[in-house]
Write a structure and sequence with these properties.
By secondary structure, the protein is mainly beta. It has no helices and ten strands. It has a domain at 12-82: SH3 type barrels (Roll), CATH 2.30.30.30. The protein has a six-stranded antiparallel beta sheet with strand order 6-3-2-1-7-8, with no helix packed on it. The protein has a two-stranded antiparallel sheet with strand order 4-5. A two-stranded antiparallel sheet has the order 9-10.
């Protein structure tokens, strides 16, 4: 059975631990198996690449590295900070994620 993460792809998150603490970014990719997320503009790694094929470009490339999911919180635009989330039941019976402080819903 696959684990569930508290964040999804295209969510805006805030980093709460590590060298990029306090920065916000959009989740590009999630990996529930490893409990990791890939956040746009956070944890930039430098890769030195040799050309492996005849037409491949060599050089120094910058790319995002993964962050453990416990080091990010969902960003609430109303509270303007990273917040814990809870479940909220709407009038039509569907369940959505909501800010535990102000009640703002994140899922459409």
């Amino acid at each position: 059975m696959q684990k569930k993460l508290h964040v999804k792809k295209d969510d805006t998150v805030m980093v709460i631990a590590g060298k990029d603490k306090g920065k916000t970014g959009k989740v590009i990719q999630t990996s529930p198996k490893d409990d990791k997320v890939l956040v746009e503009g956070i944890n930039i790694l430098t890769r030195h690449m040799k050309p492996r094929k005849e037409n491949q470009q060599s050089g120094i490339f910058k790319q995002e590295g993964t962050i453990h999911a416990s080091n990010v919180l969902l960003y609430c635009p109303k509270c303007k900070k990273g917040v814990r989330t809870g479940k909220k039941v709407l009038t039509d019976g569907s369940r959505v994620r909501a800010c535990s402080k102000c009640g703002e819903t994140f899922d459409k």
